[in-house]
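**Polypeptide and fold**
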Amino acid sequence: MEITLLKLLLAHILGDFFFQPNSWVLEKERKKLKSLKLYWHVIIHTVLVFLIFLSFGVWKIALAIGITHLVIDSIKLIYQRAKTKRRWFFIDQGLHLLVILACWINYIQPDLSSLFIYEQKIWVFVVGALVLTSPTAMVIKMIIAKWLPTGDSKKASSLQEAGRYIGMLERLLIFLFVCTHHFEAVGFLLAAKSIFRFGDLKEAHDIKLTEYVLIGTLLSFGLALLVSLAVVGLS
């Protein structure tokens, strides 16, 4: 990755996650645009650009990042609600990253033809990773739907959609392990999941639930391995 882009990302990470105490965040949420911490936060982001580049020649970038940061954070504070905090966090960070990319392209004018995004291998990995998230979760759900346990076993205490996200994470980990040729880590992952699941299934005393979980786990691991090996072969 180009060094200038890395420096801009570093300035953002330091400003948003290291030099912004939680007390500042709470005050901004409470006072919104009347909070002085909002403006100190923007000043810190602007100054960090100068400090990391050790040059006043980047004043246009620093000014653009400072102004857009104030606008984006202000919009977030005005429209954010308790129920939409998580959504606004990702919107906020996404917009800041887009600004950083725009500043990098407009002021540094890099040779975009040499970027990694133009490599076919990268797109193969991206498609493979995405396939192993929601699409694979839907396929597994459709396959094992007819075996879905009913009664008390279905009502067991569990986080909302926890199983779906656990499945996605485990498949992405398998994808990472296979693509980096660490097949032994896949075995450790399967063993770890088995250990955690064993206690729950033992307490449940439900053969159907055990078989249902086993089918889902093997399907998840099997599909993850197939997609991962296909990606490695295509790349």
Notes: Residues 207-234 form the longest helix (28 residues). Residues 119-234 form one domain. The chain has two domains: 3-116, 119-234. The chain has a mean pLDDT of 87.
